[in-house]
Design brief:
Number of strands of chain B: 18
Radius of gyration of chain A: 20 Å
Oligomer: heterodimer
Mean pLDDT of chain A: 92
Mean pLDDT of chain B: 88
Number of helices of chain B: 28
Strand content of chain A: 15-25%
Shape of chain B: flat
Largest interface: A-B, 54 and 53 residues
Strand content of chain B: 5-15%
Structural class of chain A: alpha+beta
Low-confidence stretches of chain A: 1-14
Number of strands of chain A: 9
């Protein structure tokens, strides 16, 4: 697959070179930093989405303002395609922004961030298409859209209504950008592996193609399922151990771990339809328990600073 | 020019009459496309009711929607509401203190304000007329708070508390203008005014609306077509034209037109092409991918084959004419199609038999085992239906093979991604691996018929698998007490029964339902007994009778006649049953039929009144078949009147004739035999007094009427026939 883009040549002559993958991230950091966000670093655990980062999950609870942005590597074992599909990866990056309470001009701020990375809304068709977000494993849901750029979903835009089974008071706005997809647009490429990672000739494929091949094999074919089942049980038990000790953060980390192990077991095809629901329920209980413990630990301080606030 | 003048004049006149126009616009973040039609109805309903409560009749009402706004223009409203006098009935004037206090609290009046009439107290509330602007300022805020969305949300700083406004997505602004004036109110911190916004990208700045009548034109100038009907027309015609320019025909899809109109304020249909290599993927898959995931139309070429083209609908007049947008959409579709092709290739790496082996890991129902268990039951039953000749000309081995593979596609990647392709994909995969065409067709079509109007399979192997699958569902869900109740039918058993009835009648399959249901129980003796001896058969019989009535309603078959035949019991060969019902319906429409029915009812009433215990009749069970034949004639101990003798003779002739005709499935013949009883029964009632003082005579005559009734019951239980 080679980069196409009818305007690639023309652009080379008339416009500055499109942003590399890493420059795009830097632009987003600069933009959201300017919007008053903390620029955080990725959580150092395997997780299915940026929403799992404690900066989103736990911080979405409680009355305190919280504005943060960060890149989170995401693992979706079942999405692996052995490096053969130009758009599907079992490991990719999300750019995550959380703003609590959701500002009244969140849509405008988001659209300006697209301009900041070079997407012209009079050249590209930007749309807000209904997509109610739900994470059964986090016991969370919200209303919002998937944002389409020329028919491609580039961002998940959500107003969190509940997290861990608790009402979000106030509601947080969450933006989740699919960085690879955005880069495909900005760079006019057909395959994620052809993306320019930097401006010195290193491609996304140079960095990740072999990872995709090996990880797909491991996820789908090799991973030892007994080990995974065992690890799932241990993570669940450890979560409970932490919660008994009133340690919501380490407890929540074990919930993240269990969630990822469940995803791996799914990819290995060893969880039946009926079992699936009970595994999801198990992970949800762990996440919910962690959120509950987090609220319990903080409620007093929150109520002191925000009189009248209740969980 | 002439018309302009007249409009100006009319405008001037309405000012004189004090007639006003009102505009309400609720600007929000993007409203889901599927909710917009309902939202328009809700706004219209609430507005008419709110003004109606104040005595204002609204007739010139227009409601529009776009993704970002709901708008309402009401024309010709009165400038003031009329004065209203309302009486509320209260307690009696001697009612206890508490009741009176409650009433006063409710009405906000004092005791001396109440009026007594006939010992009852009334509160009289005079509402003076008031300016319409006041009414609107008072009624619109609760209308907004009460607005019912299918799903609504909280947002922003206000959501820190518990009672912030809920809206479908954050509400951004309110325009409320009565003629040129702002109607003054505030909802959830948003003050109504005249400022709104145009198209998100073409006209992002604020716009000041002058009046209700200028609203649509001002928005049009800001690249917003506020009238949803206009946008649907642009998409419908534009998509068609875009296809036609390429020599293609658009695959029309009105649902998609409406959805796209709900996603754009300035729709621009654009045609794009995708790599023809993707056409190796089944057409249905391409269509679903394009439609569901991307909201694109697809096209066919002159030969009717799927073309490698799509039509998407943009929301902007792009600065480059749309080339970049089309290219972007092409890429997205290519990614989707390459996923579909991946599934298509991946799934075919294994045979359906290999896929089917994985069904043992999937629970069908916790009380009914795995899908593999179900498939084995269906395979046995399909084979049996073929071997017994119930489905004629059907090879039992092919029926078994098709049944064994019919659910295999449920574990394929493609059906995992597109569940609506179940069956269809199995058929494709079966053909791809070279299975017999009958088997592939049976896998493809065995869910059919899905609803009334759906094609009913006729290929023998397909019929056998489809029937076996459905019989298995009905039998086993009834056995675990999951029969439908009221509005609850979680396993769609009513639809399944309709499917069975359609298969049986359409293909004229001859078998007793009871036998098939017993067979469907399989080897389980306990279940077998439950069916054979228990209540189950009766319940299933009634269930099928009900479904048959529904199924035959459109064909004009009377439901009471179906009951009349079903009630005899033992008749559960649906083809025969329906033939019998049809013959009965024709007969009942003739003068002979009508009179015979009248005679029957008279006889039945008389027997009932006399409390006659029939030695002949056992309704509603198999027993009737085994009843001993009635005595051939009068015993001679009692003297008979001529009309009695005539009836005896007629019965002696008609009863065996009717019975024989029924046995030979000659239902017209059976009706003709019954018709012969009409004259004798009429004469009997004319000339014979049943309640003779002589108890022997009376008994003999009642016995004769009972014989007449029994003879009629050879054909149907006439007591259930209406009219």
């Amino acid at each position: 697959m080679t980069g196409s883009g009818p305007s690639a040549k023309a652009r080379g002559m008339t416009a500055p070179a499109p942003l590399s993958f890493q420059d795009m991230i830097l632009k987003l950091h600069a933009y959201w930093s300017g919007q008053g966000c903390l620029i955080l670093q990725p959580y150092d655990m395997r997780m299915g989405a940026g929403t799992f980062h404690t900066a989103t999950t736990l911080r979405a609870l409680g009355p305190e303002p919280w504005n943060a942005a960060f890149v989170q590597p995401c693992r979706r074992p079942t999405d692996g395609r052995y490096g053969e599909n130009p758009n599907r990866l079992q490991h990719y990056y999300q750019y995550q922004v959380i703003l609590k309470p959701s500002p009244d001009d969140l849509q405008e701020r988001y659209l300006q961030s697209l301009s900041a990375i070079g997407i012209d809304p009079l050249l590209h068709d930007i749309r807000f298409v209904e997509d109610d977000w739900e994470s059964p494993t986090l016991g969370a849901w919200g209303l919002g859209w998937e944002v389409w750029c020329d028919g491609m979903e580039v961002t998940q835009f959500t107003y969190f209504q509940q997290m861990g089974g608790f009402d979000c008071k106030p509601v947080a706005g969450e933006l989740t950008y699919g960085l690879e997809r955005l880069a495909l647009y900005i760079q006019g490429r057909d395959s994620v592996y052809d993306l320019a990672f930097n401006t010195a000739g290193v491609s996304y494929g140079d960095v990740f193609l072999e990872n995709e091949r090996e990880m797909s094999r491991w996820n789908f074919e090799v991973a030892d399922t007994d080990t995974l089942f065992d690890a799932f049980r241990k993570a669940a038990a450890e979560c409970e151990n932490c919660l008994n000790a009133e340690l919501p953060i380490p407890g929540y980390e074990q919930a993240i771990e269990a969630s990822h192990l469940f995803n791996l077991l799914q990819a290995r095809g060893v969880i039946s339809v009926q079992e699936r629901a009970s595994y999801i329920g198990r992970v949800r209980d762990l996440a919910r328990g962690s959120c509950e413990a987090w609220i319990a630990k903080n409620a007093e301080g929150w109520q002191a600073r925000f009189p009248g606030w209740t969980a | 020019m002439d018309r302009e003048e007249r409009r100006g004049l009319a405008g001037a006149l309405s000012r004189v009459d004090g007639v006003s126009d009102f505009l309400l616009e609720l600007l929000s973040e993007e409203i889901p496309a599927r909710m917009q039609a309902g939202a328009r109805e809700e706004l219209e309903r609430l507005f008419i009711r709110a003004l109606g409560d104040a005595g204002v009749v609204v007739d010139g009402l227009t409601v529009w929607s776009t993704p970002r706004r709901l708008a309402l223009v009401a024309r010709g409203l009165p400038a003031r509401t009329a004065a209203v006098r309302e009486e509320i009935k209260g307690p009696r004037d001697n009612a206890p203190e508490q009741a009176l206090a409650g009433f006063l609290r409710k009405t906000g009046l004092a005791r001396e304000d109440l009026v007594a009439r006939d010992g009852v107290l009334f509160a009289v509330i005079e509402k003076p007329g008031r300016p319409l602007a006041d009414l609107l300022a008072k009624t619109i805020p609760p209308l907004i708070r009460r607005f019912a969305w299918p799903k609504s949300m909280r947002w922003g700083a206000a959501s820190r508390g518990t009672d912030s406004l809920r809206w479908v997505r954050p509400l951004q602004g309110i325009v409320a203008l009565l003629d040129g004036e702002v109607v003054d109110f505030t909802v959830a911190g948003i003050a109504a005014g005249r400022m709104t916004r145009g198209h998100r990208f073409h006209a992002p700045g604020a716009i000041s609306i002058a009046s209700p009548s200028s609203y649509a034109a001002q928005l049009r100038a800001a690249h917003v077509l506020v009238d949803h009907a206009e946008r649907t027309a642009i998409i419908r015609d534009g998509a068609r034209a875009a296809a036609a320019r390429e020599g293609l025909a658009l695959v029309e899809d009105e649902g998609l037109v409406v959805e796209n109109a709900g996603l754009s304020e300035w729709p621009v249909p654009l045609l794009g092409r995708f790599d023809p290599a993707f056409l190796e993927v089944p057409a249905e898959v391409i269509q679903l991918t394009a439609r569901i995931n991307q909201k694109y139309f697809i096209c066919r070429d002159a030969s009717g084959a799927l073309a490698s083209a799509f039509v998407c609908t943009a929301n902007i007049m792009a600065s480059d004419g749309g080339a970049v947008i089309v290219e972007g959409n092409r890429k997205v579709l290519a990614a989707r199609l390459s996923d579909a092709r991946f599934f298509w290739q991946q799934d075919r790496r294994h045979t359906l038999a290999v896929h089917a082996a994985r069904l043992s890991r999937i629970t069908f129902h916790e009380k009914l085992g795995t899908l593999a268990d179900k498939v084995e039951r269906v395979a046995k039953l399909a084979e049996w239906l073929a071997r017994e000749g119930i489905v004629p000309n059907c090879d039992p081995a092919l029926a078994r093979q098709a049944a064994e593979l019919c659910k295999a596609d449920l574990v394929t990647e493609m059906v995992g991604e597109f569940p609506e392709l179940q069956g269809l994909m199995g058929g494709y995969y079966a053909r791809a691996e070279g299975l017999p065409a009958e088997v592939a067709d049976a896998i493809c079509d065995h869910y059919k018929p899905v609803g009334q109007g759906d094609a009913v399979p006729t290929a023998p192997v397909t019929v056998a698998v489809s029937l076996a699958d459905k019989l298995d569902n009905i039998t086993h869900f009834f056995l675990i007490d999951e029969a439908p109740t009221g509005s609850k039918d979680p396993f769609a058993l009513r639809r399944t029964a309709l499917g069975i009835i359609s298969l049986v009648l359409h293909n004229k399959l001859r078998f007793r339902m009871e036998v098939a249901l017993i067979q469907a129980c399989g080897d389980d003796l306990e279940k077998f007994e439950k069916v054979f001896f228990g209540e189950l058969e009766k319940r299933l019989g009634a269930f099928f009778a009900d479904r048959l009535k529904v199924q035959q309603r459109e064909a004009g078959v009377r439901h009471d006649l179906i009951d009349a035949v079903f009630a005899l019991g033992g008749e559960d060969d649906l083809v025969r049953l329906l033939a019998r019902v049809r013959a009965l319906q024709s007969f009942i429409a003739t003068p002979d039929g009508t009179n015979l029915l009248a005679g029957y009812k008279r006889a039945a009433n008389m027997l009932k009144k006399e409390g006659f215990a029939s030695p002949l009749l056992h309704t509603g069970g198999r027993g009737a078949e085994g009843a001993s034949p009635p005595p051939a004639s009068g015993s001679g101990e009692v003297a008979h009147e001529p009309a009695e003798i005539a009836l005896i003779v007629a019965l002696d002739e008609a009863a065996p004739k009717a019975e024989a005709a029924v046995a030979a499935e000659d239902f017209e013949g059976a009706m003709t035999a019954l018709a012969a009883l009409r004259a004798p029964i009429d004469t009997f009632f004319d000339q014979v007094t049943v309640n003779d003082p002589d108890p022997a005579k009376r008994a003999a005559r009642l016995g004769l009427l009972d014989r007449f009734r029994a003879a009629v019951h050879k054909v149907a239980d006439f007591s259930l026939i209406e009219g």
